[in-house]
Structures are given as structure tokens and as C-alpha cells.
Amino acid sequence: LTSKRYQIERGQFSTISEEDVNFFTNLLGHHRVINDETELEGYNIDWLGMVRGASSVLLKPKTTEEVSTILAYCNKRKLAVCPQGGNTGLVGGSVPVFDEIIISTALMNKVENVDTWLGVVTCQSGCVLEALDEHVSEYGLMIPLDLGAKGSCHIGGNVSTNAGGLRLLRYGSLHGSVLGVEAVLASGEIVDCLSAMKKDNTGYDLKQLFIGSEGTLGLVTKIAINCPPRPQSVNLAFLGLETFDDVLKTYKDAKKKLGEILSSCEFIDQSSIECVEKNLKLKAPIGAHPFYMLIETSGSNGIHDEEKLNVFLEEALGAGLVTDGTVATEPSRMHHIWSIRERIAEALINDGCTYKYDISLPLPHFYKMVEDMREHLGSNILRCCGYGHIGDGNLHLNITSKEFEKDLLNLIEPTIFEWTAKVNGSISAEHGVGFKKRNYIHYSKSSGAIALMKQLKALMDPNGILNPYKVLPDN
Ligand code: FAD
Ligand code: 2HG
Ligand code: ZN
């Protein structure tokens, strides 16, 4: 047992031997086989500091062929592995549970090609999202995905979690943007579905299986991703609102009035802003309000976009939907406003312990869940706050306490999942299932669907060596 919080038995896997380490060292060299305990510490613990594994070996391959050799060997020896990108995952999927070998994509960071005609980048899976975006910006392109963890997360991790982020509303999910994937199966077999074409209807779309399967079906080694043109004009409005009903109406209006230039629509409640102001000393650009919204426009004509945004804002203020607000166009001000939104997760950690929920809900129920949970939990907590991607119906509900308390967790779960299921929401909108949510998956997936998922897993990874104890439920 590695984690006191979770009752779980180690699978029937082999234990790594000196001979195994020698095999890996012969393949990769000393510098790419890490077995120093202190150095391993950061790879064994997740970003939230909630899930800790006890791996004694981390491997850093550089090529698909090396990944293939590693997996073929591990499969034969029945050694379990945990694929890891930037280790920013929020559901405990990126760290081992026991002594699984960590396979890091940190050195698989080559950009292979940028097709400037179609707007497609082909790269290895370990490219850091922000660096990849900077790379394609030289060609006037952008990566259609952006999130607070961009400075650390890898594109392979993004694909493996099917990350959503701040602009899904505009550019859609990775199931649409990813054009091709190369992945290595548990057997070491390389599956080449790395088409860089926008259209390819030749049979089953196998790459979709690797998007969002969190390293349980294969290790993603390369990706081809559709890159839209980088917008030439960007505006960002930070608004204060009095009621959640006003938030909903403003969102609907923004869609209607800003149309094709709307690129993000985010919502933050007062408690989340207070947390950022208190714990990170970041100051919101307007005074206190029960609710806030960030509305971003991106387009190709500054005058046109500003005019559209101004008309929308004047009407929203005139109708009393929005009571205060500010608009930024300079990069440094926009960056400051975005950091208030993007750093809420970091601010929450400073409260002590975070119980994190990432829920899809029909919009009329969206904030009711936060209010109900607040009432349900009473004075047992430090904070219960809500924010997220309102344009995608995705609520980030976070509860904090000074230290981890099992009784508090039992008060939250499964109530929160039952609440979600009752309104036909999803218990994981964008973070995935990982280790923490796997035994709750039935709240959002039918038993028939789970059975088929298990069959696929058995077909693609018969020894179950790829990220065991993740995604699929125990029963
Ligand atoms: P890791 O954390 O290393 O791994 C995540 C999962 O993918 C694990 O199960 C791992 O085993 C698997 N995996 C990683 N690489 C591979 C690979 N090459 N092949 C197969 N499996 C692999 N998520 C959102 O959806 N939207 C957000 O807005 C968002 N914002 C975030 C903000 C912050 C500050 C943080 C810390 C996280 C945020 N996340 C968000 C969580 C999100 O899942 C991750 O940030 C990101 O997608 C994970 O990438 P990573 O490289 O860190 O993957
Ligand atoms: C975000 O949108 C991330 O900032 C993290 O998905 C959400 O901390 C969270 O709950
Ligand atoms: Zn999010």
C-alpha cells in the first residue's frame, strides 16, 4: 500500500531487478535512467501533492524506437509502467501508484514539420505546450489549446487527457484538432496513424482511442495538430456581475453579439477571486462582486472587433446585466487579467488541501451545485468556490481545508457525483478519470460502455502494464 488514503492492492507485476536496470542503461545510457531517490521525488508526487507513488526508476527515451524497445521489454517481463508528460494532471493519473516504471517524454521534444499551407504542426509528444505555441507563432499560427499549465504540460499529456482549456469554445476539442497520432502499444508495436491531412476517412479512426485514454492504451510518441491562424487583434473584458442569472444571460448575449470573434468565455465567483487576492497577492482590476466574467475576442480586424465588443458591453451595462468592467488590449494588462483566472488552481493549493471537482453540467444547474455543496458542508471547510469554462458548461468546483480530512472527503463524495448524475452531467469534464475518479466512472458511463472499455484495454494491453489502477474501475 503506497497511499494511506486509498485502499488498493498491488497488481501481479514483476519487481524491477538489477538486470532490468542494466538493460535500460545499455539502451539509454546512465543519464537517461534516473534512480536517485531525491531526483525521483518530483516525478513520484502529483501537482496537487495529493497522490504519491514509490517508483525507483524513471526512463527518458528520445525516440519512438526507444519507447518501443522499453515497452516490449516491460511487457515480456510484466513490469508495469506509468507514462508521464509535464506531471500537471489533476486526477492522480500521471504518477505511479506503487513502483511502476515512469516513462517520461521530457526529452521527446522535437518539432518535425510545420505545414504552413494547411496549418499543421507535427511534433514529438514531449513538446511543452507553450514552447510549441511559440514555435508555430513564427509561422503566424497558434496551437488551438491553451491552459494555465502551458509552461509545463506536454502536448502528449494534453492529448492523452483530451485537455479542454480556455479556448475550447472557439476551437473545439482535441478530438477534432488532432489530425494524427503515433503511439506505441504495450507490446512495443508502433501504431502509425500520423496523418497530417485534414481529411482521412480510411477506415476506423484509431487515433481517437489514444486521445483521452490517459496512457492506458498506448504511449503517444508523435502528434499532428491543426493550427489556426494567430489572431491579429485580441481584446479582453473583465466584468463584474451581481447574480448568476446575469452571468448566464451575458454568456448567451456574448455568443449572439460577438459571434465568430468570441474566443473565450470564463466565469469566476467571488470566493475564487478572494483566494487569488489573498494567497497570491494578485489584485483584480475591479472591485468586489458576487460574480465575474472574462470575455475574450480574437479576430483579424482590430477596429471591427473593438466596435463589436463595445456595442455588446454598452448593451450589457445598459440592461443592468453587467455592473462594472474593464477592457484590456495591451498584452501586459491582458496577461495580468488572464493570470488571475489561470492561477486560481495554484492559489487554492495555498489554502492547504484542495478537493477538486471538474464537472459538466447543464447551465441552469451550474451554480446551484456550488450553493448546495456550501450548504451541505457548512463550517467544516475553509472554502467552497466555483469557476470555469462556462461557455463549455464546465464547472470547476473546489473545496479547501487546512489539512486532508478523510471525514470531509466522505461528506463530499459520493454526494457530489450523485448530484451530477441526477442532472445528467459528467463527473469529469476535462481533467480525466486517472486514479482518483476511476471508481466513480459509473456515475457518467453506462455499464455496457465500461465493459467495452475493459475489452479494449484487454485487447491492446493484455498484461495490463500500461498505467495500471487508472481510468477503469475496480469492478
Ligand atoms: P501528465 O500530467 O504528465 O499526464 C496526464 C495523464 O496523461 C496521465 O495519465 C499520464 O499517464 C498520461 N500521459 C502523459 N503523457 C502521455 C503520453 N505521451 N502517452 C500516453 N499517456 C500519457 N486541464 C484541462 O483540460 N483544462 C485546463 O484548463 C487545465 N488547466 C490546468 C491548469 C493548471 C495550473 C494545472 C496544474 C493543470 C491544468 N489542467 C487542465 C490539467 C491537465 O490535464 C494538464 O495540465 C495537462 O493536459 C496534462 O499534461 P501533462 O503533460 O502535464 O500530463
Ligand atoms: C482551469 O481551468 C483548470 O484552471 C484547473 O482546469 C481547474 O483547478 C481547477 O479546478
Ligand atoms: Zn479548466
From TrEMBL:
Family: Belongs to the FAD-binding oxidoreductase/transferase type 4 family.
Keywords: FAD, Flavoprotein, Oxidoreductase
Record organism: Homarus americanus
Known cofactor(s): FAD
Membrane-spanning intervals of the chain: none
MF annotations from Gene Ontology: (R)-2-hydroxyglutarate dehydrogenase activity; FAD binding
Pfam families: FAD-oxidase_C, FAD_binding_4
Domain FAD-binding PCMH-type span(s) in chain numbering: 50-230
First-level EC class: oxidoreductase
Entry EC no(s): 1.1.99.39
Any single GO CC term annotated in Swiss-Prot or TrEMBL for this entry: mitochondrion
Name under which the protein is recorded: D-2-hydroxyglutarate dehydrogenase, mitochondrial
Listed PANTHER family: D-2-HYDROXYGLUTARATE DEHYDROGENASE, MITOCHONDRIAL
Catalytic activity: (R)-malate + A = oxaloacetate + AH2
Task performed by this protein: Catalyzes the oxidation of D-2-hydroxyglutarate (D-2-HG) to alpha-ketoglutarate. Also catalyzes the oxidation of other D-2-hydroxyacids, such as D-malate (D-MAL) and D-lactate (D-LAC). Exhibits high activities towards D-2-HG and D-MAL but a very weak activity towards D-LAC.
